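Invent a record, attention on tokens:
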Amino acid sequence: MTQNIRKTSLRTIQNTILLVDDDPSVREMIGRVLVAEGYRVRSASTGMEAVEIAAAEPIDLVLLDLNMPGQGGWETFEKLTSKDPLLAVIIITARPNQLFTSIGAGVGALLEKPLDFPILLRTMSVLLKESADSRLERIAGFKAEFHYVPSTRKDHLE
């Protein structure tokens, strides 16, 4: 009996992921995968909406697109991390040449679109388990683990 209660309570513990992308089909597709993996997903179509959601409830990790109308991804990143510097953030973008900006900003990972879902899920798992000390080292510019997955699209590479 105790084992059943224990298993149930472990399953109900969910990390909350804030998914920020202006494309509804991208939000739906990624959101569906994350929910199937047991994550609680909050979606935002704008940077301003993302900041409001993060102010209203605890967020464990942000998946953040850069190309959004109005408040762009980097401005949204600055606002989110100014309130919670240890917030785990994965940049997901089709915008090229973001590697050095991402590293300099202290982002946990940069995954270029199109996304490879198994890699996304592994990267999320690693960042969600990361210690506060490791995040602080990355933010401060010390040598820290950084995850980068370049685009595999041929048209992107040419």
